Input
Amino acid sequence: MATNQPKWLDNAIFYEIYPQSFNDTNADGIGDFQGIIEKLDYIRELGCNALWINPCFASPFGDAGYDVSDYYSVAPRYGTNDDLKRLFEECHLRDMHVLLDLVPGHTSVEHKWFKESMKAERNPYTDRYVWTDSIWEEPQGMGCIRGISDRDGSCAVNFFSHQPALNYGFYKPELPWQQSMDAEGPKATLEELKNIMRFWLSMGCDGFRVDMAGSLVKHDEDGKGTIRLWQNVRAFLDEEFPSAAMVSEWGEPDKSLQGGFHMDFLLHFGPSHYNDLFRCEEPFFSSRGKGDASEFVKKYLENYEKSERKGLICIPSGNHDMDRLARSIHGDNLKIAFAFLLSMPGAPFIYYGDEIGMRYVEGLVSVEGGYSRTGSRSPMQWDDSVNAGFSTAPAEKLYIPQDNSKDRPTAEKQMADADSLYHEIRKLIGVRQSNKALQSKGEIQFVYAEKNACPLAYLRHEGEEKILVVINPAAREAEFACDFEPVETIYRFGGDMKLQQGKMTVAPQSALFIKVK
Ligand code: GLC
Ligand code: CA
Output
């Protein structure tokens, strides 16, 4: 387990910025660092105190920047390295922290390492990627790039077929081309990864969200090799950057926390189930009140136990890989869903635009490897000016077309309306930040979570402080056996509760946080 847990993670509330779609200040239709800097006060006012910025490094953008061609330079479309440094500084001035997105598992085919590794003659990059010894041999179970190199071999890929897999070795090499984790090539890859981290941490970033963190060592079913690799990275951090924060995209908290990560964030196609109350056929946050909280709670508790009940699992409102929350959850249910998100352990992550209920834009042609994800990546809607204040470029030059419905939500409209989702989230963050039991490390104990029944009730506690959270998305009253003694309601959405003879009845479509004894 990680030794140095930065204090700020205890009450961190992340705001995920997809930089190309956030705010464009030079009218090229693509968001930029200056645009982020100009909106830091907006993010701070909402209550978020930390950022996760999606990859902003040089890239041909075949997977929106998850195909890096130079880890040491930012993509010119966002600005310069100095601009990013200024962004770190501006965040720190506001007591905010920044995680960059580290993509350690693969690069773009345009990376100079890959070009060198495709050459027939041996060179320092020959072993930087996972190659077989012959073009006729495919790396088992991994997909590959073949037929474009002078080198006689096939190169394994990690995700799309233009993302060659970096070589950190095989847990148990079985074939001649499979190298061990301790071979020179894999060791050099790992050292280079540390150099990259060193570079950005020295410049002022506060840590990393690590892309597909569990994917590094190959044929490593139980993750033992990959855990060992991250422990090695953590040892380096403890020595040189002890306060660096690490959040994994892994989805198996037992493994990632053993590897020295502070928190685990879900892998959208992985086994985590962190999002099962929203993203399923019958979402729990619906006035039908038919969703199954018990299944979610079962899976959550399995993960919670595995993370030594430390509450280090992060639940996001959404991200650049999933459908917008507002695609399946509407109206008051969005507010109720945020009451849940913002009262769970671990650091909550709010995906840009989810705080105003931005919609999934249907029917878009894929942009930069987004495919069905493209509809969740449309430019932020700030106000009623041209292109909703995102950019002054002609609309057809925007990175992705915007939601063009007349009643599309904007930050400006939501901020002007005291009953908006934006204000509810702001209020919820305020309550979370003034009650330790609700923050990242407060313990959780589920009180009522039954199959196809409402409400969902859980106790958050830390020391003497005990807060009962009761969430009822159903359009009808709901009740459960409750032997806590209410002291004070610190948050209420919808009607109040009644407590009689050990039975609590809560109003339709309501959420309550109650201090109890
Ligand atoms: C992660 C990212 C996703 C990307 C993939 C490959 O899952 O979140 O956007 O396409 O990794 O890097
Ligand atoms: Ca721009």
Summary: Residues 432 and 438 are 5 Å apart (CA to CA). The mean pLDDT is 96. The longest strand covers residues 465-472.
